[in-house]
Amino acid sequence: MNILVTGGTGYIGSHTCVELINAGHDVVIFDNLSNSKESVLDRIEKIAGKRPKFYVADMRDLDSIRKVFSENSIDAVVHFAGLKAVGESVAKPVEYYKNNVGGTLNLLTAMTEFGVKKIVFSSSATVYGDPAIIPITEDCPLGTTTNPYGETKKMLERILTDFQKANPDNYVILLRYFNPIGAHESGLIGDEPNGIPNNLMPYILQVVVGKLPYLRVFGNDYDTPDGTGVRDYIHVVDLAKGHVAAMKKFSDEPGVYIYNLGTGIGYSVLDIVHAFEKANNINIPYQIVERRPGDIATNYSDPSKAFRELSWKTEFDLETMCKDSYRFAKNALSGQ
Ligand code: NAD
Ligand code: UD1
Question: Which atom of ligand 1 has the smallest separation from the CA of 191?
């Protein structure tokens, strides 16, 4: 298939482009490069042996999306483009709603105009809020989001569901990601957040390459085995392969399909610290500090639906995630 990947030069998008090319698909990327670099294309080409066609385009501008559809015969869209910094979304809600929600509405408009009926959307476990069930199944009721970023994901799930209802011959696949970490084994692509990272692994990487002095562990008084927050960390390559697997549904009945993409295993913050230290033979200085507002104690998936329906399950363990994260950090971040 000829797949349009929005946000394809970003962290998860770039890894997914590699897996789509490996699976024999053609890839067209559009990205406004607000949180990624054009040089990622060279890296995708180096890894996968094929260079995706690329447009610098902003999804807030409907005409620039139309141009991409008019110049390419697109079979399906994998939609990653979006802003994702939780703290920034609290400070700039209008920008987040305009970009994530407004941009996606433009995308759906263009897809309708050009008769493209298949979309895979990057959702997040954040839609479950403080989850009613652990491990979290797709039937778990959606929870209360604590920030505009999370709310855009919830709103977009609803918008895409309404869109499919109104267009019953369309396919909408909502993938709820748990916590992606790791990088391609080549060390060529990975997570490169701007500024001081919010998320755990990018923060650890800044500490180990000497850019930040120590890790702040946000609270050790949660109701978890060691008191620190528990999450479901998934290797980004496994996550990327989940997108290729999800596209199997495009040969099934049209409809809305929802899958958790996680490992089903919960690790605490200190588990991650110690696993990283062991895998890479390096010390991570840390201090226990106050809880971070909006954080929950425990969040991990039941990924069995994706296994049953897509034959997808994760392959990479925590040691590999830690090794691959560090390899990328040494390559990419130490030179900044
Ligand atoms: P990323 O920032 O690395 O990639 C997103 C890409 O979208 C970037 O390259 C950015 O330049 C581009 N983009 C943003 N706004 C755009 C616009 N208006 N027009 C065109 N391009 C635009 O982020 P990521 O970690 O790869 O996340 C990809 C998607 O997955 C996002 O929608 C994110 O919300 C979602 N997600 C990420 C995580 C995570 O932990 N990384 C977890 C759950 C869901
Ligand atoms: C966060 C976002 C979520 C988003 C996801 C992926 C919040 C409340 N949630 O999820 O909406 O979808 O990122 O982008 O921001 N931790 C530390 N020290 C740090 C960083 C994190 O101790 O410097 C802890 C956190 O308290 C948490 C765990 O590490 O227990 C994971 O945090 P993080 O990587 O930010 O992911 P989430 O909070 O799960």
Answer: 3
Instruction: Judge whether residue 335 has pLDDT over 70.
Output: no
Q: How far is the CA of 89 from the centre of ligand 2 (A)?
A: 14
Both ends of the chain: CA-CA distance in Å? 37
Helix-helix angle 200-208:318-328, to 10 degrees? 50
Q: 224-259 burial, b for 16+ CB within 10 Å, e for fewer?
A: beebbbbbbbbbbbbbbbbbbbbbebbeeebebbbb
The fraction of the chain above a pLDDT of 90, given in percent, is 95
Instruction: For residue 270, report the distance from its CA to the centre of ligand 1, in Å.
Output: 27
For 16-65, the pLDDT digits (tens) are: 999 999 999 999 999 999 999 999 999 999 999 999 999 999 999 999 99
Measured CA angle at 296 (ends 294, 298), to 5 deg: 165
Helices 236-246 and 11-22 cross at an angle (nearest 10°) of 60
Ligand 2 pocket residue status of 295, Cβ below 6 Å: yes
Average pLDDT, the chain: 96
User: Tokens 């802003």 correspond to what residue?
Assistant: 83
Distance (Å, rounded) from C-alpha 153 to C-alpha 176? 9
Compute the Cα dihedral for 114, 117, 118, 123 and give only its sign: positive
Ligand 2 binding pocket includes 297 (Cβ within 6 Å): no
Question: Which atom of ligand 2 is least distant from the CA of 294?
Answer: 8
